Amino acid sequence: MTLFEPFPLGPTTLTNRLVMAPMTRNRAAADGTATPLMAQYYAQRATAGLIIAEAATPSLTGRTYPNTAGIHTDAQEAAWRTVTSAVAAPMFLQLQHGGRVGHPTTSGRTPLAPSPIPLPDPIHTPAGREPAVTPREMTTADIRTTIDDFAAAATRARSAGFAGVEVHSANGYLLHQFLAPNTNQRTDAYGSDRSRFVLEVLDAVSDAIGPDRVGLRISPGNTVNGILDDETLYPHLVREAARRNPAYLHIALAVPESPLFAQLRAAWPGTLIANPLLPQGRIPADGGRHAAERLLAAGADLIALGRPFLANPDLVNRLQTAAPITQPQDRYLMYVGGPRGYTDYPTHQ
Ligand SMILES: Cc1cc2nc3c(=O)[nH]c(=O)nc-3n(C[C@H](O)[C@H](O)[C@H](O)COP(=O)(O)O)c2cc1C
């Protein structure tokens, strides 16, 4: 089994096992519509077996940062269609509600979260970095509306030409805030069973577009955005999610020798995408190939890479031929607009 063999993912056949991880790059227009530059960026990276496009919000309230994409208006759906039609690889769209990771200066709305506990850090807004605001605790009606928004966004993503969607339950955004005890202090059924909201979102999205077109991304133990996880919840979540037969489970920052990775692999009979934990800063000189192969050996089916794809549009060919790897430029370039540090990474000659 190698990285460069085809793999069937639901109704789609991937030409290889390398997946471009979802990466927010803040190149959408102010109204959350995808831009021609984004189409060019993804088209450049279409040798990936699968591209998981950046987080797109299913509602204005769920918007995280300036110039992030949305998938809740007709204009956003139409703009995404121009992206998917320009890209040769199958694409899933990641659906992300920010929860407390949002700001009225960005969205015009008070953020919603499981409990009224603010993000500990300031947050990037169109006016620069601002202190986080205390989110409003979601009512049962807010929960219902948000679940419906996810389902509607999934339907729009399919109409826009995506092969499926990835439900973002990682990295400290709304779904992860429901999973973690320090951000979910509810006393209702969504607090006594912290997996419940994620599973209800999964059910609604699966009902909308079919479970074989839905993935779930988790990042157990990731402390980003002020999350303190209870890792013992994940085997339960994964077993329950597996009963719904989604297209895949995607584990971010996966460590092949960790007991939790083995436990989750055992709890998940379906397709597993693993995103290896690579060093921060410089990426490995082999582009992550060694880390990818270790995860395949530990039972992953597909390997997601983020920064290696960001800086190497032809990453698959480079890994296959052991060609030199370009390092991502200054981190700052990841979050600003325009082609610099975005579409100007060279193809290996
Ligand atoms: C610029 C940038 C933006 C990211 N945006 C997202 C995102 O929108 N959704 C998500 O789940 N992860 C996001 N991530 C995390 C990546 O998907 C990935 O898990 C992380 O970069 C580690 O993989 P790597 O070492 O191969 O880059 C982002 C990472 C980077 C570097």
Explain this structure:
The protein has 349 residues and is α/β, with parallel strands linked by helices. It is 32% helix and 17% strand. The protein has helices spanning 36-44, 74-86, 104-107, 140-159, 174-179, 189-192, 196-209, 233-242, 259-267, 289-297, 307-311, 315-321, and strands at residues 7-9, 12-14, 18-20, 50-57, 69-70, 91-95, 112-113, 123-125, 128-130, 136-137, 164-169, 214-218, 248-254, 272-276, 302-305. The strands form 4 sheets. It has an 8-stranded parallel β-barrel with strand order 3-4-6-11-12-13-14-15, surrounded by 4 helices. The longest helix has 20 residues, at 140-159. The model has no long low-confidence stretch (mean pLDDT 96). Flavin mononucleotide binds next to strand 4 and helix 11.
Keywords:
single chain; 349 residues; alpha/beta; eight-stranded parallel β-barrel; 17% strand; globular; binds flavin mononucleotide
Short summary of the structure?
Helices cover 32% and strands 17% of the residues. It has helices at 36-44, 74-86, 104-107, 140-159, 174-179, 189-192, 196-209, 233-242, 259-267, 289-297, 307-311, 315-321; strands spanning 7-9, 12-14, 18-20, 50-57, 69-70, 91-95, 112-113, 123-125, 128-130, 136-137, 164-169, 214-218, 248-254, 272-276, 302-305.
Topology (SSEs and partners):
Blueprint: E1 7-9, E2 12-14, E3 18-20, H1 36-44, E4 50-57, E5 69-70, H2 74-86, E6 91-95, H3 104-107, E7 112-113, E8 123-125, E9 128-130, E10 136-137, H4 140-159, E11 164-169, H5 174-179, H6 189-192, H7 196-209, E12 214-218, H8 233-242, E13 248-254, H9 259-267, E14 272-276, H10 289-297, E15 302-305, H11 307-311, H12 315-321
Parallel strand pairs: 3-4, 3-15, 4-5, 4-6, 6-11, 7-10, 11-12, 12-13, 13-14, 14-15
Antiparallel strand pairs: 1-2, 8-9
Helix pairs in contact: 1-2, 4-7, 8-9
Flavin mononucleotide (FMN) binds at residues 21-24, 54-55, 94, 168, 170-171, 217, 252, 275, 278, 305-308, 334.
